[in-house]
Amino acid sequence: MRAQFVLSEIGVGLRRNLTMTFAVIVSVALSLALFGGSLLMNEQVNSMKGYWYDKANVSIYLCNKTDKANFPSCAKGAVTDEQKRQIKADLEKMPIVQSIQFETTDEAYKHYKEQFGNQPLATVVTADQMQESFRVKLKDPTKYEVISSAFQKRPGVQTVEDQKDTLKSLFNLLRYMNWGALGVMFLMLVVALLLIVNTVRVSAFSRRRETGIMRLVGASSFYIQVPFIAEAAVAGLLGGGLACVLLVCGQQFLVNDLLATHIDVIQFIGWSAVLTKLPLILATGLLMPALAAFAALWKYLKV
What keywords tag this UniProt record (predicted)? Predict the structure, then answer.
């Protein structure tokens, strides 16, 4: 098979169906960009979970003087010094506890002001309304229920809270967003595949005379199909290249220049994660249209 003939046929096919080829390139680029973005977002969520779950504590909030009417365990008023000493001593005896940190009302108020100081409610909250608490780090974060059952209804304890539950809601939201992006990606992928099939069929129909002559002189099905498959592969490869450009631009301008400079509490994934996804994007952009074209032509140009 002459390479020059195949290349010339690819050029002819792309020029004859320029509009549909452009639509294929854009559709493939968008679907693969969403695919790559979903992979990166999933990696980002896993990285955040590993980082924050390791730092998540179990917080044992103690009763203050304003909790008497709202919590049964605080019916006798604010926590006493003896109750605090006993709670700390019992925590230290538990083998699942790795470390214990006591937070005073002043420290809790300071942290509250740092997080919610710009909200109107922060202007009326005072330090004596905050709860003292024990921040307990566990050797195994899954053993939260052991702490909860031991201290939840204890006198002087307002409530026991696992910070991991709060983080779980955030990660679930990110997961749903990721699934939404995957759903849009599959929709765009279907559109791209339909466009590829139609483009190949139109290209084959416009060159039916040439392919008929090739049949008459004994050309094999594979020989006839190769230029059409190569056209789809080239269009897909261009779409994959455009998707890679979109991912690189997203990493630089959206993540590095915007999000990373305004959100300090999240360690965003770096260039290594992006660069490892680019070969997969290009390979998918090359193979997916080629296989779709091969399937479309299997019966259409079969000798």
Answer: Cell cycle, Cell division, Cell membrane, Membrane, Transmembrane, Transmembrane helix
The pLDDT tens digits for 245-286 are 999 999 999 888 888 787 766 778 889 889 999 999 999 988
SS3 97: strand
Q: Which among 59, 63, 86 is positioned nearest to 73, based on CA atoms?
A: 63
CB proximity list for 166: less than 8 A, separation 6 or greater: none
Q: Can you tell me the distance from the alpha carbon of 283 to that of 290, in angstroms, rounded to the nearest whole number?
A: 11
Long-range contact pairs involving 265-272 (C-beta distance under 8 Å, separation at least 24): 266/48, 267/47, 267/48, 267/51, 268/44, 269/40, 269/43, 269/44, 269/47
**Domain boundaries, given as residue ranges, for the chain:** 1-48+166-299, 56-162
**DSSP strands (E only) in 117-173:** 133-138, 157-162
For the chain, give the percent of residues with pLDDT over 70.
74
Q: Considering Cα of 47, then 51, then 54, then 60, what sign does the dihedral take?
A: negative
* Extended beta strands in 163-290, E state: none
